[in-house]
């Protein structure tokens, strides 16, 4: 879950090419699945459950506008964690953003339903997502945008090889490095 008691600041992180990606291991009873038609409803449900969107309708409309026009890419880039009984409970999307004319591969919208957090699923989907991103894009620099509210996920991103960038950004994201780091430094004591 997001910690919305903190001030919101944008954080830009970058994984440089050549960084080792840890192995992704899901606990027994869970598997990785790629997007298939209709999974946008599961994506919206997951994103609302973690507080990224205020309503299911808002999340679904976002997905339909941003991702569904690229359905073939979705089927290669949108990853889910599924329980043995077929319930989708986590997601990550390997996508891209344009920084002027430069196309930057980036991780979008990572989330695991709250009742499944603490089982290592977030870590597993981030690691597996990175492995798949390398398969799709080659071993190059990757970006992600996150925020102070997601400080718990930041520890996973750091373990996956991402680092804070101080003066850089991608796409149209702001980079509030100084304010963000000041806000979360006590929460990341053993990490940074």
In short:
GO terms for molecular function: acyltransferase activity, transferring groups other than amino-acyl groups. This is GNAT family N-acetyltransferase. Helices cover 32% and strands 25% of the residues.
Radius of gyration: 16 Å
- Termini Cα gap: 21 Å
| CATH structural architecture | 3-Layer(aba) Sandwich
Query: What is the averaged pLDDT score?
Result: 95
InterPro entries: Acyl_CoA_acyltransferase, GNAT_dom
Organism: Mobilitalea sibirica
GO molecular function, one term: acyltransferase activity, transferring groups other than amino-acyl groups
Domain N-acetyltransferase: 30-184
Structural overview:
This protein is an alpha+beta fold. It has one domain (about 10-190): Gcn5-related N-acetyltransferase (GNAT) (Aminopeptidase, 3-Layer(aba) Sandwich). Helices cover about 30% and strands about 25% of the residues. It is built from 6 helices and 7 strands. It has helices spanning about 40-50, 55-65, 70-75, 120-135, 150-160, 175-185; strands at about 10-15, 30-35, 80-85, 90-100, 100-110, 140-145, 165. Strand 3 and strand 4 (about 90-100) form a beta hairpin. It is globular. The relative contact order is 0.24.
Q: How does the SSE layout of this entry go?
A:
Elements: E1 10-15, E2 30-34, H1 40-49, H2 56-66, H3 71-77, E3 78-83, E4 88-99, E5 102-112, H4 121-137, E6 142-147, H5 151-159, E7 163-164, H6 177-184
Parallel strand pairs: 5-6
Antiparallel strand pairs: 1-6, 1-7, 2-3, 3-4, 4-5
Structural features:
single chain, 192 residues, Aminopeptidase, 6 helices, 7 strands, globular, acyltransferase activity, transferring groups other than amino-acyl groups, GNAT_dom, Acyl_CoA_acyltransferase, GNAT family N-acetyltransferase
């Amino acid at each position: 879950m997001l910690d919305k008691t903190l001030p919101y600041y944008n954080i830009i992180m970058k994984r440089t090419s050549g960084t080792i990606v840890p192995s992704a291991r899901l606990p027994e009873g869970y598997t990785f699945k790629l997007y298939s038609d209709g999974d946008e409803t599961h994506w919206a449900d997951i994103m609302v459950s973690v507080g990224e969107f205020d309503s299911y309708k808002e999340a679904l409309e976002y997905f339909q506008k941003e991702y569904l026009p690229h359905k073939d890419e979705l089927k290669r880039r949108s990853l889910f964690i599924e329980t043995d009984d077929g319930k989708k409970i986590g997601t990550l999307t390997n996508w891209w953003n344009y920084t002027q004319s430069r196309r930057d591969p980036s991780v979008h919208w990572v989330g695991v339903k709250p009742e499944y957090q603490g089982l290592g699923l977030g870590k597993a989907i981030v690691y597996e997502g990175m492995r798949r991103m390398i398969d799709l894009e080659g071993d190059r620099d990757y970006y992600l945008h996150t925020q102070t509210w997601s400080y718990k996920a930041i520890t996973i991103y750091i373990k996956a090889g991402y680092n804070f960038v101080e003066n850089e950004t991608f796409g149209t994201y702001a980079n509030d490095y100084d304010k963000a780091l000041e806000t979360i430094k006590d929460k990341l004591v053993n990490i940074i």
